[in-house]
Amino acid sequence: MIKVALTGATGFIGRHVLAVLNSHNGVDVIAVAREFRAKVPVIRNGYWVQMDISQPPVNVFEALGCPDILIHLAWHGLPNYRSLRHFEAELPIQYAFLKQLVQQGLKSVVVTGTCFEYGMQSGPLSEEIETRPANPYGFAKDTLRKQLQYLQAPDSFNLTWARLFYMYGDGQSDSSLIPQLTKAVERGDKVFNMSGGEQLRDYLPVTAVAEKMVSLALKQQNIGTINICSGKPLSVRNLVEQRIRDEQYHIELNLGFYPYPDYEPIAFWGDTSRFDHLTKVR
Q1: How far apart are CA 36 and CA 31, in angstroms?
Q2: Any long-range contacts for 247-250 (C-beta under 8 Å, 24+ apart)?
Q3: Do 70 and 162 fall into the same domain?
Q4: Which ranges constitute the DSSP H helices of 74-203?
Q5: Any idea what DSSP says for residue 165?
Q6: Within this chain, do residues 76 and 39 fall inside the same structural domain, yes or no?
Q7: What's the structural domain count of the chain?
Q8: Closest by CA position to 203, among listed 238, 226, 234
Q9: Cα separation, 238 vs 240, whole angstroms
């Protein structure tokens, strides 16, 4: 049996990753949550551990059941990407936690990165492109990746840096675009205020993101940085219009009500070549 520990297991992505792990035979799951505020999902092939990663026990690796793999999703302070807390407080907490686990015996780590590591670069973005983060969250994530790569020299371990783009699906934050659209319809709003909607982004259902992350984790390889994305640019306007058609909503779009975000370029999407090559059936 392969033991897989999962931090951030009650979060948006975490719940879907947990569902995928739950469907795998031959996998024992140790799901980690900071606190149990509500009923947590049932784990048929594992158990829950309550742990604050900012204050882990001395024997943290043992406390997590000595896992073979860690899928690390936990990160506090989102979606406020501009908060200095990301590198002033969260970054040292994250690195200390992961370093402690590695030094106590963890051999494979999968950590979520972000497309914001690429910064204001436009067009198709591949893993070979130099990172140029333009907000504190992207900077903190990019720095953590580099720290872990340096840590591999004295403490050999497999590192997969899963660089996420945009996701949607069940459990998404209420402040995200699609949940806001749904709420507007439920309120009976006649119009939905949004930006011009011409931004090109890379969207992937969170269920697909979870499947991809688990498939990479179970390889137990030193994969390095890899994009988790669709590889297909889609405008924000088209995304919203598609949801309106699919759900048969009766609402008009008030385009241009909000300005475009100044912390991301107008058009960018991920390159899936590396993921496709790594996961293709030989």
Answers
A1: 12
A2: 247/185, 249/181, 249/185, 250/185
A3: yes
A4: 85, 91-103, 136-151, 177-187
A5: -
A6: yes
A7: 2
A8: 234
A9: 5
Flag whether pLDDT at 102 surpasses 90. Answer: yes
Q: Which residue has the tokens 């092939």?
A: 45
- Determine the Cα–Cα distance for residues 97 and 76; give it in Å rounded to an integer: 14
- pLDDT averaged over the chain? 95
Query: pTM for this one?
Result: 0.94
Instruction: Say if residue 82 is in the same domain as residue 12.
Output: yes
90 and 218 share one domain? yes
Which one-letter amino acid corresponds to residue 61?
Answer: F
Please give the Cα distance from 110 to 160 (Å, whole number): 5
pLDDT at 36: 79
Query: Do 212 and 185 reside in the same domain of the chain?
Result: no
- With DSSP H G I counted as helix, E B as strand and the rest as coil, what are the percentages for the chain, rounded to 5? 35, 25, 45
User: Tens digits of per-residue pLDDT, 147-199?
Assistant: 999 999 999 999 999 999 999 999 998 889 999 999 999 999 999 999 999 99
Q: What is the CATH number of the domain that holds 62?
A: 3.40.50.720
Q: 279 with 227: CB under 8 angstroms?
A: no
Q: What is the mean pLDDT of residues 4-13?
A: 96
pLDDT bracket for residue 136 (50, 70, 90)? very high
Instruction: Tell me the residue range of the domain where 253 lies.
Output: 173-200+233-268
Verify that 24 and 94 share a domain, yes or no.
yes
Which one-letter DSSP state was computed for residue 117? G
Q: What is the pLDDT of residue 35?
A: 84
Q: What is the CATH number of the domain that holds 191?
A: 3.90.25.10
Residue 32 parent element (H or E)? strand 27-33
Max CA distance (Å), the chain? 60
Which tokens go with 124?
């198709």
